[in-house]
Fold this sequence. Notes:
Elements lengths: L2 H10 L2 E7 L6 H10 L9 H7 L5 H12 L5 H18 L1 E8 L1 H5 L5 H19 L2 E9 L4 H11 L6 E7 L11 H9 L3 E6 L5 H11 L3 E4 L7 H10 L2 E3 L9 H6 L8 H6 L6
Parallel strand pairs: 1-2, 2-3, 3-4, 4-5, 5-6, 6-7
Helix pairs in contact: 5-7, 8-9
The chain binds zinc ion (ZN).
Amino acid sequence: MTTEDRLSLIKQWPKAELHLHIEGTLEPSMLLALADKHSVQLPYQTLAEVEAAYHFEDLQSFLDLYYLGAGVLRDEHDFYELMLAYLEQCRREHIVHAEIMFDPQTHLSRGIGFDVFMPGFLAAIKKAETEWQQSTRLLMCFLRDQSEASALETLKLAEPYLEHIEAVGLDSAEVGHPPGKFKRAFEAAAKLGLRRIAHAGEEGGPDYISEALNELGVSRIDHGVQCVRDSALKAQLAESRAGVVPGQVDERRAAPVRQDGVEERCDSLSGRVLSGKRCR
Ligand SMILES: [Zn+2]
């Protein structure tokens, strides 16, 4: 079978997207259109310049671009368009289930509240569910380079929308912001009935993964590739059946994970959702 045949076959298969940051899906053309709509000055003038910038090399260059892009999302319709564009992409690629992370603090810090971005997100999700039976889950992430007090405040502000939120997570710049910093915020989220996940072991070490499991009680680790450096941790991941979800940028680092067979034990949260066994 040729590579082309394989790609064609994969395109036809129903798929699940497990690790996706909605703010990171902003396409260059939409970035330029929204910047123009809201008179936001960008360091790029043309589509080609924006597209060139999208070839990021590491987490920090991705984050720089991510925050620049988030700055053009201002009103409810912007968030609707952003979500709908992604869900339409899912439809084209036959992604039948998508677990979508969003970062409230990125917007709250710009004076844009839950009452702006959530109705936009939810209207697009409703349209996709109704028109092509798209399955989605929203995962609300705390920015780990902000304080726990800010995470707790975000959780409070999210309360009117909890029925639409599946889990809380941790994302953004990892090193220097270990999971234990958010122990109380995750305990509060658990009390509200939310599931818990966290980015850990992407650029931080295996100790970040252990801390997320032991102190935050997460059932899924995003990225997690650094677990290959700690045999006891690998055993704990297998024993706890916590999901490990490497992201696209982990591709270059994923080989050791496969060699160690860890991915075979990745019974992800989403896998269970898809099989119809919701395990809140
Ligand atoms: Zn991520």
